[in-house]
User: Fold these one by one.
Assistant:
Number 1:
Amino acid sequence: MVLLKKGTKLYSIIRLKCPRCQEGNLFLTQNPYNLKMFDKMCPVCGEDYEKEPGYYWGAMMVSHATTMVLAVVVHITIFYFYGWETAPHITSLLTILIILVPVIFRN
């Protein structure tokens, strides 16, 4: 498939490769739950990941949308079992979001 050939942006996004050289992995470790290194990025080609202000605005919006969809699904599920009780909603949502923070951060 032409869209997934090496050298395309889609290839880098799907395979989590360095956007410049596409040789090294974007993150040093493939395990998002290695909390000491879950945000460390691979400097194979010297790519500077500190972009100008506003560069990560789109990523922030996608992360927010993902979190909101997850929150709505959890809310509907908990509402089905517990009704309007507050404690199960807050406890369930916080637990799930804390567990999934590394995964949402990387996506």
Note: The chain has two domains: 1-49, 51-107.
Number 2:
Amino acid sequence: MKSVLVIGGAGYIGSHVVQALLDEQYTVTVFDNLSSGRMENLFPSAAFIQGDILDYDNLRKTMEGGFDAIVHLAALKAAGESMKLPEKYSLNNIVGAINLLNAASEVCIKKIVFSSSAAVYGDPLYLPIDEKHPTNPINYYGFTKLEIERFLEWYDQLKGIKFAVLRYFNAAGYDIKGRLSGLERKPENLLPIVMEVAAGLRDHVSIFGDDYNTPDGTGVRDYIHVNDLADAHVKALSYIDEKKESLTVNLGSDNCISVKEMIDAVRKVSGKDIPTKIVARRPGDAAKVLASSAKASSLLGWKATKSDVKTLMESTWNVYKKFAK
């Protein structure tokens, strides 16, 4: 297996996955509508087709190009926005995934790696969260991811499409070798927002609640370096190709950092002041989340090796400081 179609491959995570696949000598084609992806995230050694997963005919025509597998990273991902605009998330995430699965089925592509989310679990009943934890999303984004996972299970049973579902929360950092530097468009995740403030691209960081039952009152999350995530996608692709069986695994860093700790870390690495404002909690936000990656370690031989705070901060600031005002 050497030919892979990466849907959403011009985006932040997608471009790092493309990079990791190219490093392993895969032939890669990127399919992206560039709504959040960027042209500067494309590699000359990867083919590019501009298209949208809601355009079924174009998607199917693209898949006729003889691909061995698909990596799907084209979902909308802002949990807060999903609670305000469920229609948008239903259309792009759910309908888009159905289009993808139907087109793959028609052209007999039998392997899919799906970038899911630990948001499928909802409020943790215990920590760290493992794959046996009940799934009960508390935001609509998480609901759409869980529905896509269920579609994959059915298409496995009915159409023989093997899948790897990768559940994780917060991707962060940039390629440690400096090969990618395209900034996220209108970021919703914490680290790029804090970095934009440090670079003078926005004036403050909004902290959504400082009264959680956590050591400093702000939300605590599991951040994982995007190079580690990309490595997991490649390993998952190899797994379903070699084992001919589907799997669902968490990807965690085994480290947690609070909102305030993240902001302080950016102040330290950038030497910049980071103005903040405390605002109301967002619906669908849990106080603390930490994922267990023991199953991924066992099945894939994967472990986060670049997700320490120092590497996360430095690799990100090395990109954002180039755009500082």
Note: The chain has two domains: 3-172+224-250, 190-221+254-320.
